[in-house]
Amino acid sequence: MIQLNQVTYQYPQHQPVFQGFDWRVQRGEAWAVLGPSGCGKSTLLYLLAGLRFPQSGQVIIGGEFLSKPRPNTGLILQDYGLLPWATVSENASLGLRLRLFYGPDGRHAPAGQQVQDAEAQANHWLDRLGLTEVKDKYPGQISGGQRQRTAIARTLATDPDLLLMDEPFASLDAPTRQSLGRLVRSLRQEAGLTTIIVTHAIEEAARLGERILVLNQPPNRSPQIVENPGAAVEGYSESAQYLSLCTRLRGLLEPAQ
Amino acid sequence: MNARKVLLAALGIGVAWQLLAWLLDTNILPGPLLVLQTFTAEIGADLGGHFLASLWRVLASMLLSVALAAPAGLILGQSRRLNDFFSPVIYLLYPIPKVVLVPVVLLFLGITDLSKIVIIFLILFFQILVLVRDQAAAIRPELIYSVRSLGAGRRGLFRFVYLPASLPAILTALRQSIGTAVAVLYIVELTATQKGLGYYIYFNGSTLFDYPKMYAGVLAMSLLGLGMYYAVDVLHRQISPWQFSERE
């Protein structure tokens, strides 16, 4: 599904975040990318989203070189990126309205897929995520958890095969965080989504990532991967296995200089 | 704003005016009732025509300034390079009190309606340009990234992000500058025209010494400003309900 071949990325006047970095992601996998701030995990997500491009090396997704955002990749950022002037329902249908706006041109929207009824398709997800009651409210009027679910609904309405999330639960309280985590897991399992969640929280990486990519202070040269198949199982976060994994991850994160 | 409170305030001002008129007891300050009477009699006759002339000038300059300044502001707000190039120019021109350009514009455009419209246009143009530009530039990159990841290119961003984000800025700019626009309208109508409220007020006050009529003109000009302000406010609420919605 995803191949990073010898990727080098560098911000001006900084040392490279990635240098000759290789990474493979198979279809349907649930990844967590864990690392301290400044390690380049958000950069990695932007590279995968087609919003930044490596100075050298290639990013290949679904067999194609990435040269712009890919219509079937869904991106959910920490602050959810909702339009403050649009209602929950209008926000949720934004991706579909953009597809209607451009038509199925294969650049901005997947070729050969005509959106029939943007509102109905978005409503389906609003209903599914329990947002029907707030669908006429504005983002400023709803809770953080509802905003996050709106962002998820907006992304899922476009029927992605790859879901990229940057610190998606960072500003939510623990119960909301856990229920959204369960939601993402069940959505992934039923739709065969590939998910990549970027986080600085060890517990979150351990709960949500069946495979965990650990990044450290740049430059990152080779991927450090921790297998965590238990994350697919309900109730895993109460197990001893989970706790020992968290300890192990903590050891892998170098203290920042 | 609560309509009842506004009416009450209007009544209060009227009472204060009446008291002052009684106290001073001079023909240069007629009471509000006499002025109101003159106003209703005149608005159907002479005053109405002057009012329309003034209204046309303000409306035309508002439309012209929105039509030119809003797209320019959007473009500058989106493009750092263009903004870097133009912002020193704007920095120099923005604070110039445009009213001092009245004689210059009159020299170039003559005593036409156009010269008056252009002067008010100049005031509104910079106000809208700067507010829309800053609004468009202030859109957080995360929002742009999110919308781009949903497939938006330049056109899509313009239609779904920049345009709706700047509508409130246009209306805020209009609302903030209506007071100045009407004030300058008065000044440009003092000279070189025989139509408009400015002329009406000046002519009745200093040539005919008909003070009730002069005050009727002042009242009409106040109503013009108030009406514009109110119209923009209502439009703002219609177009950007999210800025007025209560958090629950």
DSSP strand tally of chain B: 0
Assign a percent range to the helix content of chain A: 25-40%
CATH architecture of the largest domain in chain A: 3-Layer(aba) Sandwich
Instruction: Indicate the mean pLDDT of chain A.
Output: 88
The CATH topology of the largest domain in chain A comes to: Rossmann fold
Unreliably modeled segments of chain A: none
CATH second-level architecture of chain B: Orthogonal Bundle
What percent of residues of chain A are in strands? 15-25%
Largest sheet of chain B: none
Keywords:
heterodimer, A: about 260 residues, Rossmann fold, 2 domains, six-stranded mixed sheet, globular, B: about 250 residues, mainly alpha, MetI-like fold, about 80% helix
Describe this structure in words.
The complex is a heterodimer of chains A (257) and B (248). Chain A has 257 residues and is α/β, with parallel strands linked by helices. Chain A is 33% helix and 20% strand. In chain A, the strands form 2 sheets. Chain A has a 6-stranded mixed beta sheet, sandwiched between helices. A 4-stranded antiparallel beta sheet of chain A has the order 2-1-4-5, with no helix packed on it. The longest helix of chain A is centred in the C-terminal third of the chain and has 18 residues, at 174-191. The radius of gyration of chain A is 18 Å and the shape is globular. Chain B has one domain: MetI-like fold. Chain B has 10 helices and no strands. Chain B is globular. The interface between A and B is medium-sized, with 40 and 28 residues.
Write the layout of secondary structure elements.
The complex is a heterodimer of chains A (257) and B (248).
Chain A: E1 2-9, E2 18-25, E3 30-34, H1 41-49, E4 56-61, E5 64-65, E6 73-76, H2 88-92, H3 94-102, H4 118-128, H5 144-156, E7 162-166, H6 174-191, E8 194-199, H7 202-208, E9 211-214, E10 224-227, H8 240-252
Parallel strand pairs in A: 3-8, 3-9, 6-7, 7-8
Antiparallel strand pairs in A: 1-2, 1-4, 4-5, 9-10
Chain B: H1 3-24, H2 32-43, H3 46-78, H4 80-93, H5 102-109, H6 113-137, H7 141-149, H8 154-190, H9 197-206, H10 211-239
